[in-house]
Design brief:
mainly beta; Jelly Rolls; eight-stranded antiparallel sheet; 13% helix; disordered C terminus; 10 helices
Length: 737
């Protein structure tokens, strides 16, 4: 049987990206797995569950019946959704009622004409943007209804279309299972209803943890009810070599999990047939201060224990004898009765599908601290491309500020599209620093260039970026200095790449020419150049790195670097003849994830950071990933990827037949045609967006008229554009189904 993770949060910490995943919120409990969409792009993960009600579903018009009932069928059972909402930090669901002579809540005084049914079949008489017990719509809360006498726009009973919409965010009432619409029995009454998917953020259970500081410290909970079946799972992290994780006693019956030695976890119990012990032995020590997962199960047929991805240890139950586990004492997490307790951290402890609140209990227990530190030792490797792992009370995050990347794991390239004639300059010194300013005495104040060049020189550089272009020749990147020294990456008239170094001591600059590959073919290419003294290593795309050496007479110091240019060189003083030629008309195409030593000039231009003051741009810089580096690692094959979703078994929200060995050629061809069509549409969109941004580098914003009074930008847009939320949700839905 496939083992699914408990939540989207768990998939995120396996380094997974946004996608559909099967999650099993109560482990091996009765609920079973469900399929959700996990959005990993923010610090906290969003989990989304979809239903089948079309957006803008029409009710009324021709019907004469008094009530119209709209039923929502989800891709999960109500119990499964409850498991997600109860462990989430926040949940929301969009709801909208568009009306023409159809009143909604019949405010201010009357009985509501319409309502929605939520969890546990409860009726609710509040609408999106409002809260429990308040018979109002969003406009009634914000006091901006069309007619101030009413608390909903629709209650004014106009003959024109009006709308009441907003988020339902009291998660104990979600999800919406039915919408019942009343006021439809008059001629001309019409209404349209939209309900978005349920979206939940955060996972309180995944990081719910306690740190055991002394070997006698423990937490106690009420007796574990696991008479015929027990399912216990948790993560632990320790540097101690042994200790009891948890124990619950009866008269003679008991159940116990412990770390027996640095490499052994034991699960023992007695249901009246004598003690049984299952031990998993790990080839590597488990007291390495990394998180390890333990899963112990027992039912009337068998018992099993698994640690991390090690083989499952199973023990069959005797055919005759006792089967019920009868316990009386409290459940102890940690040491009890003179045994050596566990030292370290336990988190996400689930007993028969229920997460125990270790954190709350630890707050009032001496010797136990709520929460855990040191997540980076286990998860730091997911912060890629030089991103730094930052400890947080409940988890970790990746700090990408010193990288040319973005996103929760620093793997999203930050890049831009350069139009012909556009360029970017990054000054290594910030404006207005002086030699006296020792803190940033890297380079001189630009105010008086007459003074001798600053005393900074490099004897090693590391440069990496990716690009795509169809025009040659051009200057991709150029580093200038206060001396004749420079470094450049060029595409020559034949479309071949050239790296040019001029560090002094040689008559001509030193060139590295890559003659046999056309780089101006519109494909993304990656370039990595590392120089250490005389030695230069160049890696292009996924070809093996090649080594070069500066001539013996060449200087190895890059003296007084001044600025880095992308797309074109605009520098005072004498400039290399070829570069001068290549400068017109300039680079057209895409540059992405540019990094020179610790500097990421494109990111500084596109993301407001403290380095942004160093950047000067000529033209309109449009962010784009069109130059993003191609995948150099083949994706994991479906056979070896344990989280690969078999699309044939995924029955929601799409049901694609997996193309097997007997490939269905027709569907493959149709797929190809569709792919080409989608690609053409996307290209057209990119072209249109570029065209919109071209005009004189300016663009106008249509400020939402209610912006000043709205509490947030979102509120301003939602208040003003009646179709805003609808259109977004609709387009999303069409893509997803």
């Amino acid at each position: 049987s496939a083992i699914y993770e408990l939540s989207c949060e768990a998939y995120k910490h396996l380094g997974k990206t946004s996608n559909y995943y099967w999650i099993d919120p109560d482990g091996s409990g009765a609920l079973g797995p469900l399929k959700v969409y996990c959005n990993m792009t923010e610090d906290k993960v969003w989990t989304t569950v979809y239903h089948d009600l079309q957006m803008q579903t029409s009710v009324g018009g021709s019907s004469v019946e008094k009530l119209s009932v709209l039923q929502l069928n989800y891709s999960a059972t109500m119990d499964q959704i409850s498991a997600i909402t109860s462990s989430a930090e926040y949940c929301e669901q969009f709801i909208s009622y568009s009306c023409k002579m159809s009143r909604l809540l019949n405010t201010p005084e009357g009985n509501p004409y319409s309502w929605w049914v939520g969890k546990a079949n409860e009726k609710h008489y509040y609408w999106g943007g409002s809260g429990p017990g308040i018979q109002k719509c969003a406009c009634g809360i914000e006091r901006n209804c069309t007619d101030p006498k009413y608390y909903c726009n629709c209650d004014a009973d106009y003959k024109q279309w009006r709308k009441d919409s907003g988020m339902l965010s009291y998660k104990e009432h979600l999800p919406v299972s039915q919408v019942v619409v009343g006021d439809l029995d008059r001629p001309g009454s019409e209404a349209k209803v939209s309900v978005g998917p349920v979206r939940c953020q955060g996972d309180r259970n995944y990081w719910n943890a306690a740190s055991f500081v002394t070997s006698s410290s423990h937490l106690h909970f009420s007796t574990f009810q696991g008479e015929t079946s027990a399912d216990i799972s948790f993560y632990f992290k320790t540097s101690a070599s042994d200790g009891v994780f948890l124990e619950n006693l009866g008269n003679t019956d008991f159940i116990k999990l412990e770390l027996k030695s640095a490499r052994e976890v034991s699960f023992s119990f007695d249901v009246g047939n004598g003690p049984v012990e299952i031990v998993v032995r790990s080839p590597n020590p488990l007291n390495d201060d990394q998180w390890h997962r333990v899963n112990a199960e027992r039912n009337v047929k068998q018992a099993s224990l698994q640690v991390d991805q090690l083989p499952l240890e199973v023990r069959k139950a005797p055919t005759e004898g006792h089967t019920r586990l009868e316990l009386y004492s409290q459940l102890y997490v940690g040491a009890v009765g003179g045994q050596r307790g566990f030292l370290g951290c336990i988190r996400s402890l689930r007993m028969n599908g229920v997460t125990l609140d270790l954190e709350e209990r630890a707050k009032v227990t001496p010797g136990v601290k709520p929460g855990c530190s040191g997540h980076c030792t286990s998860y730091g490797m997911y912060c890629a491309n030089g991103g730094k792992c930052v400890e947080k009370y409940n988890g970790y995050s990746c700090d990408c500020s010193k990288t040319a990347y973005d996103g929760p794991f620093c793997i999203k390239d930050v890049g831009a599209f350069f139009e012909e004639g556009m360029w970017l300059r990054y000054n290594f010194h910030s404006p207005g620093t002086s030699m006296k300013d020792l803190v940033s005495r890297t380079l001189l104040s630009s105010a008086d260039p007459e003074i001798t060049a600053p005393d900074l020189s490099l004897n090693k550089e590391e440069l990496s970026f990716s690009f795509s272009t169809t025009k040659s020749p051009c200057v991709l990147l150029y580093v200038s200095s206060y001396t004749p020294d420079f470094m450049a990456v060029l595409v020559n008239p034949n479309g071949n790449l050239q790296i040019r170094y001029n560090l002094g001591g040689t008559k001509e600059p030193y060139n590295i020419d890559i003659d046999h590959r056309n780089m101006a073919n519109g494909q993304p290419h990656t370039v990595n150049v590392t120089r250490n003294g005389r030695d230069i290593v160049l890696q292009l795309d996924h070809y093996p790195p090649t080594s070069y050496s500066l001539p013996a007479t060449s200087d190895i110091q890059f003296n007084s670097p001044k600025a880095l240019f992308l797309g074109k060189v605009i520098e005072i003083g004498k400039i290399d003849e070829d570069i001068y030629k290549y400068n017109t008309p300039g680079f057209t195409g895409c540059l992405s994830r540019v990094q020179f030593n610790q500097i990421a000039p494109l990111k500084a231009a596109l993301r407001p950071t403290n380095a942004s003051s160093h950047v000067h741009i000529q033209g309109e810089l449009v962010e784009s990933n069109c130059g993003a580096s191609p995948l150099t690692i083949p994706p994991m094959s479906a056979a070896t990827d344990p989280w690969h979703l078999d699309s044939a078994s995924a029955d929601f929200p799409y049901n694609g037949q997996a193309i097997g060995d007997g490939v269905n050629r027709n569907s493959a061809i149709i797929g190809g045609v569709i792919a080409v069509v989608i690609f053409t549409i996307l290209c057209t969109l990119v072209f249109l967006i570029r065209y919109m941004f071209r005009h004189k580098g300016t663009y106008h914003t249509n400020e939402a008229k209610g912006a000043e009074s709205a509490e947030s930008a979102d509120a301003a847009i939602m208040n003003n554009d009646p179709n805003f939320t609808e259109t977004i949700d609709e387009s999303k839905k069409e893509w997803l189904i």
